[in-house]
Every structure is written in C-alpha cells, then in structure tokens.
User: Fold TetR/AcrR family transcriptional regulator from Amycolatopsis minnesotensis.
Amino acid sequence: MALTGGTEPRVRRAAVNLFADKGFHGTGIRELAQAANLSSASLYHYMGTKEDLLAGIMRDALTRLLDAAGEIAGSTADPRARLAKLVALHVCTHALRPAETQVVDNEVRSLSEPARHEVVRLRDAYEEQWALAISDGMAAGRFVAGDPGVTRRALLEMCSGVARWYSPHGALSLDDLAAQYAALALRALGCVDRASGADLATAGEIVARVWGLPS
Amino acid sequence: MALTGGTEPRVRRAAVNLFADKGFHGTGIRELAQAANLSSASLYHYMGTKEDLLAGIMRDALTRLLDAAGEIAGSTADPRARLAKLVALHVCTHALRPAETQVVDNEVRSLSEPARHEVVRLRDAYEEQWALAISDGMAAGRFVAGDPGVTRRALLEMCSGVARWYSPHGALSLDDLAAQYAALALRALGCVDRASGADLATAGEIVARVWGLPS
Amino acid sequence: MALTGGTEPRVRRAAVNLFADKGFHGTGIRELAQAANLSSASLYHYMGTKEDLLAGIMRDALTRLLDAAGEIAGSTADPRARLAKLVALHVCTHALRPAETQVVDNEVRSLSEPARHEVVRLRDAYEEQWALAISDGMAAGRFVAGDPGVTRRALLEMCSGVARWYSPHGALSLDDLAAQYAALALRALGCVDRASGADLATAGEIVARVWGLPS
Amino acid sequence: MALTGGTEPRVRRAAVNLFADKGFHGTGIRELAQAANLSSASLYHYMGTKEDLLAGIMRDALTRLLDAAGEIAGSTADPRARLAKLVALHVCTHALRPAETQVVDNEVRSLSEPARHEVVRLRDAYEEQWALAISDGMAAGRFVAGDPGVTRRALLEMCSGVARWYSPHGALSLDDLAAQYAALALRALGCVDRASGADLATAGEIVARVWGLPS
DNA sequence: GATGAATGAGGTTTCATTCAT
DNA sequence: CATGAATGAAACCTCATTCAT
Assistant:
C-alpha cells in the first residue's frame, strides 16, 4: 500500500522543511515557492490552499506512524517488547523525519476545523497504542507507572524531543539512539532487566519501509 | 531581588497567553490589543516592537528559572536529590506557568539576533545545571545514563511536556505530579531506591516565590 | 517694533532646524519634542498644530525679510546700489539664518490654505522689491537684463543657494561672500563698473538688527 | 546605449511627478498607486520599496545629466563655449524634466545609505565638470570668478531654479531661455563679448537625445 | 506648566490567492 | 504547465493630536 500523498513531492518537501523550521504562520507562500523552484502562482497547480498543504502533510505523517504502530502492536504480545518497539518507532521516526514530526507535534493549532479534528483523531488513535502497551504491562505486573496517563505523556514527549536535535551525521548511530531511549523508557517503567536489542531493529525497518527510505 | 520585568502587566499577560496559544507569528497585533483592552496604537506605549515583547517574556522567564535552578544546585549536594529537585522545579514551573514556558520552549526561532543569542545563552546556562547533576551522579556511581547528553535532553523534554496538558484544576495535585515525574526520572537513571518526597516541596516553594505566586 | 513671533523659542528653534534638515513631512512630532526637551504632549502648550508652527516660522521670516527690503528700498535711490544691497541682504539672511530661509524656500507646498496664500503674498511682496530694482535699473539704462522676470528669478535662486552650503566657521567671511554675490549679480546685469563695497555693510547690519543678532 | 531605467514607466512617471510636487515624505503610497492606476499592493510588483523607487529615479536622472555633461566637455575646448553649453544643458534639462530635476535637487536628504552616498558621488562628478570649465576659463584669463567654488555654486543654483517656474507652454521659448541664462552666466563671469548662440542648440539636442524626447 | 495614557487614522509593506495569457 | 500581473485584506507600526491628572 503505497502512500504517495497526492501533492507534488517538490512542493511538499519544501513545505515540510519550512513549516518545521519557521512554523506554519512564519512561512510565506513566496518563500515556499522559492524553495520549490516555482513561481508563487505555479504553486497553486500542486496544492489547494496553504492550509490544505499543512493538513495533507500531517495526515500523511500520522497515517504512516499509525500504520507502523498497528503493525508492531499486532505482532508483539509481550508488553515490554511492545513498548520498547513503540519507543524505537517513535524515536526513529523523529530522528529520520524530523521535519514531518515537528510539524505534526507543533502545528495542530494552525489547523482549522474540520481538518484539525481529523488530525487529532489520528493522533489519539496513535497514542492509544501507547496507552494499551502501558496498561497491558501494568496489568501483567511488569510496569510500575503511577498514573498511566501521565506516564504515557511523559514518555511520548521524551521521545518526540529527538526531532529537535538528533542528526544522522553525528557520532550517535540510529540504533544506539533507539536502544538508549528504549532503556530509559523501560527503566522509567520499573523494568530492571534490559530490553532485547534484537527486536528494536524491527522498528527501524518498519520506519524505513513505511517512509520509503533506503535500507 | 524583585523581578518586575518592565512591560505593563496587562500587555505582557495578554501576550504570553496568545503567544503560547497561537504562536508568535500566529498572533496579530490587533488581537493582542483586544486581549489587553487597548487600542493597537496604545499597545506601543507599553512595548517596543512585538518582537521586543517576545524577547522580554523569554528573558524574564528564563532568568527566573535559572535563578531557581542555581538556588537548588547551591543547596543540594547529593546528585539524586539535586536531580529530583530540578525535575520538580521544571515540572512545577511548566505546570504553573504553562504560557511562559511554552513560549520559551517553542518560540526561540521567532527571535532575531541579537535577542536570540542572549536567550539561547540563558537556556544553555540553565541546561548546564542539569548536565552537572547528571554527570555528578554518574561520577558518584549513582546514575546509569548511557550518553549523558542524550539523557539530559530526554529528561528535559519529558518534563517540558507538562505545560501542554496539565491543569491545576484537574484530579492530579501539583505535588503528586512533581513526585511522579521525579520517580520516572530517577528510575530512568537507574536509581531503584525511591527519592525522598520531602525535598520536592522545596522546589514548589521556590517556584512560587520566584514567580510571586501565592503559597 | 519687536518681532517675537509668539511661539516659545525652544520649540521654534527646534522646529526650524528640523524642518530645514528633514523637511516638514519628514519631521515627526516626537522628534520635535525631543529636540525641544519636552514631551510631545507638552509641545501643544506652545503651539497650535504642527502646521501652525510651520506657518508661524514662515510668516515671521518673510516679514523680517520684507521689512529689511523695504528699508533698503526706501533709502537707496540708485538702482545699482539698491540691487547690490538687496543681493547682500538676501545672501546674508540665507547665510546667517539658513534654517529659516530653507524652510521658506522649500516648504510653501506643505502649507494648506489659507496660510499658504498669506505666505505667498508676503513672498511676492518681497520679490516685488527685486522686480522694482531691476526695472528701475533697466529704465535708467544701467541694466541689461533680457526678460526681467527671468533675470529676477535667476538672481534670487542664485542667492538662495547660499543657505545650502555656507558656513560662518569656514574660510570665507560674510562680507566677502556678500561682496562676491553682489559682483556676480551686477556683472550678470551688465554693469562693468564695480559696486561700492561700503554700502553692502548696511545690508549686513540690517540683517543683524532685524533678526536680533549680535553686531 | 539606451537608459531604460528598470521600473515600470507608469509607476516611475507617477512617482517622479508626485515626489517633485509634494516631496518624498509628503507622498503616500496610496496616492502613488492611484496616480499609476494601480492598487497599492500592485505597486510592489514594479518596485522594491518606496525609497528604492526614489533612488532609481535619482540615479537615472543624474546618470543622464552626467553623460550629457561628459559629451559636452569632450567636444568643446574653449572654456567660454563649454560653460555656455553646460549652462544650456542644465537649464534645458531643468526646463524639460522639471520633475526629475527637482527630485534630484531636493530629495537627497530623503535617501538613506548606501543609496545616498552613490547619488552624492554622481552629483559631485557632474559638478566637477562645471568646476573644470570654470577653472580652465580662469587659467586662460577669460573668467573673473572670485572664489571659484562660490561661483560654481551660485551659477548652478541660478540655473536649477528654472525647474520651479518654466513652462514650455509659456511665451518664452526654450532656446531663448537657454540663451538668456548663458548670457547671464558669462556676464557674471566677466565675459563682455557675447557667447555664440549657435553652439547652444547642441545642448538642447543632447538633452532631447539623452532623455528620449522628440526633436 | 507638564506629562503619561490613549487613540483614530493612516503610514509602508506583505499576505494568500486568483486569473488571463 | 507556468507565470506575470493584479488585488483586497491584513500585517506591524507611527502619525498628529487630545485629555485627565
């Protein structure tokens, strides 16, 4: 199931980077056109309004994330492994697609209805996978999580931060990054035994496939 | 040492809420004036440019945060207790001043030089207190932190998220919130013994004092 | 007959300099207030509107000039001497009061009716003295002037230019300046015999008296 | 070598007339748009800022004037004829292009750096041609000029005044105007013999050619 | 006298968008 | 496909001016 997303790639690529960098309201149409090597009038051949463009970006990114999470949830019974993979998925996605994820994380407020509602629904569905993993782990006596809602939010935000600073060209490999975050999350949940690194690779592969990235 | 902050309170209050809510570029001058019960021309009696207003807000908030962190660092030798208090400080600040903290966390990019540089310097000085607590704890063999820079960022982002959702009118008390985040952080750092909750109250008091809040 | 002019000297002095320097429309009220060491609200104790201020400045300067010209015309029968003195008067006034004269010369257009009309009337009355001197000289066979209107305008503009560049602190004395301009004008009018320098001193004295300047 | 000048003619034409008439600061953008039969937003298709427009006008006008002066200087050895032609050039330019020349003469102050510097440089280069003609004439014993700098300024200002009042629809022909000014200038310089009127026609032709005017 | 506070109108410039070519 | 031309609305900010204190 290919998720091409509709909009011309040049335009979407330019938009995602600019929206991530300067925010939706901080990005002008001409700026966008210039980044896409197009005149501002030509832009409108490839998109509806500026807001439609934003909505498309967010829907696309969230759908990919949700698909990946569903795949992990459907194939991983053990709550510890499942949560570790969700962490790896979230971290890898934010590391490899920092622009898209920052837009998703920061620009919901720039959407007006009904697009906002739809995006929020997707995001909630995605977070529900985290909620399930946490509650399953607590029910199984594996996790110590205090208020599970608080914990879920804390862990999600922790992982989302990656998009703000991680560079694939730096010293830290993506695998190590994912492993460290998984370890942090599991320890925070009270698991003293380590998570198996082997499983985390799966998450990285899913991310690559879902986004059409090499290897 | 009173930190009055300069700009007329009405204006600053309105600005901080709008900037937090809709972003700097998403907030218009007329909107701001209306929220401050002023004409848009009158606004300019109380501020320089819109960006000056933003810079003032950020400088003020970061200075308060930095002062509080310095106070904690100066009075708490044990790295575990120190980190727990820093977590409590960060969480309480984000819970009680969600508008200011979100502006600080999201709008650095909207600043142009030289204000940006100054704000970044303040933020770095603040994060340095976290870095010291973590490296002290690792040197003392109390923390297991993998790459300490990654850990620092992960924990900071985790705590910052509070500003996005916590409400003091909800079921969760501020003390419980701070305690849960401190527990999450210490466990993530590999401390299995619990942090003493007694100390955390100190952080709440500092926050209240530094921001001039009741109790 | 003292010509105090009404407006507080501080204000008028500041205004005249700014209007000369940046033009009427290029000068803001706050700028003016700052130059007069007053708040912009306080300005309005000393003046009506900004345009009233301009009109007052122009009326005052033109009245002084007109008085001086009348005095010269009334006391100098010979057209050559009369014109030489008018030149000296015009040049000295522009050299010693460059701000006032530039405002008079450049800002008539910034006046609206009825003030404009009044100022134009004064200016025309002043120029009439030049016209009389020239036509008297032609009638007496002393001047060769082609179209006398053209000549009058040419000579007036020639002399007015002094306000743009002459500095009393430079190498050229005021007397020399006046003498050179008088010589230029008389030669342009076809008088090959020199103008008597002694008379020109009279013009300088009149300027000083009319403007209340030392010596 | 065509000097088309860049900006859309409609806009430049409107601007030059308004700037001449009401001054740069006295001319509003909406006024300008209306005069160009454009909305104020559309104006910005054809220009950068209002100041860019002014700078373009001044650069263009000064370049034409400088070119013409260079041509005259290069082709006229005798200082008397040269000065007469420069006078004719200056007078004709001011008579035929009163708007452009008034803007050049009055609005240098409205320019900010670096445009101001550039314009001043052009103006100085132009005035240098006058300075050379005068000093050549003095060296050759043809001119009596007192302080040559004073004389240069006096003659230039005398001629510039034409833009303020001459109308090609009046009784005075352009040729007569130029001839009279040349005669005034040469007499002022102490030349009692008349300048040859034949040469002056050259100046008129150059002006027409340089500005793309008929005949 | 003097001024801080206030404002309606207007300043220049940019916005997202449309449409004829 | 692509774009230059065009625009109404709105952006931020400054204007000259008034008035209660």
Q: What stands out?
A: Residues 38-42, 45 of chain A lie near DNA strand F (CB under 10 Å from a C1').
